[in-house]
Amino acid sequence: MTARVAAVDADGIPDIIDEIMKIETSSFSVPWRAEDFTASAEYGTVAASLDGKGRLIGYGCLVVVADEAEITNLAVTAGERRQGVGGGILDFLIGTAAESSVRRLFLEVRESNANAIALYSSRGFETVGRRPGYYRLPKEDALIMMLEIGNSEC
User: Fold this and answer.
1) Per the residue annotation, which of 24, 59, 70, 120 is the catalytic one?
2) CA-to-CA distance for 123 and 112, rounded, in angstroms?
3) Boundaries of domain holding 125
4) What is the CATH number of the domain that holds 12?
5) Mean pLDDT of the chain
6) Residue 101: how many other CB atoms lie within 10 Å
């Protein structure tokens, strides 16, 4: 699968919000609201993955604060999972963080989401903590994963 990943600014979110929300509501038991994606584009990065026909097949959100960043959301449409789309989005977000002089990149993931954990681990993320009961519907712990990007030496 060949997909193109690009950043979408806040003005571009309305053009794809319906497709984002279809993926979001089918991927998460407690989905984000449409306005959460607009805010993410205003204060961070929203990356959109488009297939060869220009259809949205996945997205990811990144927020940078000083020398740390967090991937706050990443989802791929069900029909495109396990075909490299999520990895492409993740690589784009890691690259964006690195260009912003980020040293540590964090994310949270359901402890039962073995596929996502394997993807993140394949890019060097390591589990550094746990948030008990972080997720609801169903209630479940979140694993906190971190990727060291920058060199702490000047």
Assistant:
1) 120
2) 19
3) 4-148
4) 3.40.630.30
5) 92
6) 12
